[in-house]
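Hey team,

Filing this mostly as a record. A colleague (T.K.) asked me to run one chain through the structure pipeline before their review meeting, and I want the input and output archived in the tracker in case anyone asks later how it was produced. No errors, nothing strange. Just documentation.

Input sequence:
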Amino acid sequence: MKPFCILLALLSFELTALTITPTVLEISTQPKMSAQIRLENTSSKQTPIEVSVRHLVFDDGGSFVVEDAENTDLVVFPPAAVLDVGGVQIFRLQWLGNASLPQSQSFFVRFTQPALEMPEIIDGTGNESGSALAIEIHYNALIHLSSPSQKPDLTLRVSSEGVATLTNRGDRYTFLSRFRFLHQTKHVLEMPETLFGERFIPPNTSVVLDSVSSVVPGIYVGESR
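Output structure:
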């Protein structure tokens, strides 16, 4: 099939659009603590939405896989909704599990628009050429969950070749922009995110950063700022 025929079919198919606010949430395991996500239907069609929770499992290098979390204690209400054109739905999130966790956890709250059927693709002669396609649309909000007693513990090791390895030995996630780093020579990286970019650092992980030749080699101790 010619590419322009596919493009025309896609352009003629109106996808439902949702606006999610916020897209990243940090919530506590403390009892009675809750959070909200706001969905607005900015399309021209009524939109049904189903909600599910996915667990992000990180390896030692900071990479992750997404797993189903059907039995999770992170509860989202309502579990489904139908948004009218211009309509708004507030979804409430609450942790119903143990207030003390071995380490912080991260989740996707997934808002799914059930499969929509695209129209038959029309070729250059005006004839249908292929069966309709069913498309399921997902919108994700990222949730970081932690206990009040948990803390990150960051160190930055820079080799003589300029390779930087960021290690979090703590039991809580953090972001690079929340720390400064102190070298034994009293050299300070006050805003490390300007050198390495903003980074999310899961608990008990080591992440290799981009090489930066301007940083003094050695071991830096992280300090919250």
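Quick notes for T.K.: The radius of gyration is 23 Å. The CA atoms of residues 103 and 171 lie 5 Å apart.
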